[in-house]
Specification:
Layout (H helix, E strand, L loop, with lengths): L2 E5 L5 H11 L4 E5 L16 H16 L3 H25 L2 E5 L10 H6 L3 E5 L19 H21 L2 E4 L11 E3 L27 E5 L9 H11 L5 E5 L5 H10 L2 E5 L9 H8 L4 E4 L3 H4 L13 E3 L4 H10 L1 H17 L3 H12 L8 E2 L14 H15 L10 H11 L1
Parallel strand pairs: 1-2, 1-3, 3-4, 4-5, 5-6, 7-8, 7-9, 9-10, 10-11
Antiparallel strand pairs: 6-12
Helix pairs in contact: 1-12, 2-3, 8-11, 13-14
Length: about 425
């Protein structure tokens, strides 16, 4: 059995999953069609002329696609390079574990993989399946853009559902899904930061006040950064706080700040109760992390495997100040939550544990409780914006495009709940 891991890296998950498979003695290769901006461990990445050609062709097409003549030149070149790579992979691998948005030929390769009895496992990460009209990452886009993105997302979900052997997903992004999927909560995200070396930290990174809080938003609007800043400025009047907003710095600098902070704030408007990449780094260095969201109390409400629930400091967005104050006042609570977070990522989400879950999936050894029915989802699970902002946008969106534009005919109760929320 030979496993392909690809084709987009997110938060080092493919590299960590490969480390897990390597520990289990299971051959796997990582193939990336795009450069990962945070860098990769070259010893883990597969390189050959097919991959290099495909990556070059993709870059050239992306660079010149707005130039009509060059677009017509590089479009077939890109397609041919990707097709050649796909054929090589088709002949080499038995299992394809694909991360969000991963595709060789715009998903046209999926029926071919299925025809040749390849096992296709898709790992959903969020925006690849979440309805754009509920996704704060697209803030600022006009209604027509959101509608077109919604059609694209719906089509993506449909084609992946049609051809994938298994989809590892979660209820906070399952709106467009119609078939049972594998519940992500039993898997988690493969975490391995044992290679991190935090030595000789420059003195400039050590805290300058009694408490150091950090926040590293990838998208300041979606992560609720303006509100977080407002709350912190208010608390500075009462507490001796150093707040560091991490932006446009190297990963090593981020790690220095994590190592010298007391706790971190991840995001205000989470789409589910899970740890993202930044949260896992914070956890590995034994620091507590705050994550809030409107639907967070419901993400694990029906989940019986309590050991697999990430021990983040969580609550509703309006509870952010109270959560911060408790961490400010209670040093032992900070230490306890940091230790719990570390134990969680090193025991429940370590790379071998997650790889073993995928191994069971590959071998069709699937417990009944892993299956989740998306048609039972009745919550909005909106991400990256306040209730008020989402409600106002949905009013405009539905008024202009109609309720059909929600594309939720398959789930009447969810459609009804969204319509009620928007009124």
């Amino acid at each position: 059995m030979r496993i392909l891991l690809g084709l987009n890296e997110i938060s080092n998950d493919l590299q960590n999953l490969k480390r897990g498979f390597d520990s289990l003695g299971i051959p796997s290769d990582i193939i990336l069609l795009n450069d990962y901006k945070f860098g990769v461990d070259e010893s883990l990445i597969t390189r050959n002329w097919n991959i290099s050609l495909a990556k070059y062709a993709i870059k050239m097409y992306s660079k010149y696609k707005k130039t009509l003549l060059l677009k017509h030149l590089f479009s077939p070149f890109s397609w041919l390079a990707r097709f050649i790579l796909f054929i090589r992979c088709l002949l080499t691998y038995d299992v394809f574990i694909l991360m969000a948005y991963s595709r060789f030929l715009g998903y046209k390769e999926l029926p071919i993989l299925k025809f040749f009895n390849k096992k296709i496992i898709f790992q959903v990460m969020g925006s690849d399946f979440r309805p754009p009209y509920l996704n704060g990452s697209f803030v600022g886009r006009n209604i027509e853009d959101i509608y077109q993105l919604t059609l694209e997302t719906k089509k993506r979900v449909e084609i992946i559902e049609k051809y994938a052997s298994y989809i590892v997903s979660y209820k906070a992004v399952s709106h467009f899904q119609t078939l049972p999927y594998i519940d992500y909560r039993y898997f988690g995200l493969p975490t391995d930061y044992s290679y991190i070396q935090i030595k000789n930290i420059p003195t400039s990174y050590y805290k300058k006040q009694t408490i150091k809080i950090i926040h590293a938003p990838t998208n300041q609007v979606a992560k609720g950064t303006p509100v977080i800043l407002e709350v912190i400025e208010s608390l500075k009047k009462k507490y001796d706080i150093e707040f560091v907003l991490l932006s446009d710095i190297s990963n090593q600098e981020v790690l220095y700040h994590i190592a010298t902070c007391d706790f971190a704030i991840d995001q205000l408007y989470s789409g589910g109760g899970y740890m993202a990449g930044f949260s896992r780094e914070v956890a590995f260095l034994k620091k507590p992390i705050i994550v809030t969201g409107y639907d967070m109390p419901y993400f694990y409400d029906d989940f019986e495997d309590k050991e697999k629930i990430p021990p983040v400091v969580c609550g509703l967005p309006e509870e952010l100040e109270d959560l911060i104050v408790r961490l400010l006042k209670d040093k032992q609570y900070r230490i306890t939550m940091g230790e719990k977070a570390y134990q969680f990522v090193t025991e429940q989400w370590n790379q071998v544990a997650v790889a073993q879950q995928f191994q069971r999936l590959i071998c069709n050894n699937i417990p009944q409780e892993w299956w989740c029915n998306p048609l039972e989802n009745e919550r909005l699970w909106h991400y990256g914006r306040s209730h008020q902002v989402v409600r106002e946008f949905l009013k405009e969106y539905i008024a202009e495009k109609g309720k059909y534009a929600l594309l939720l005919k398959h789930n009447p109760q969810l459609e009804k709940n969204i319509l009620n929320f928007a009124t």
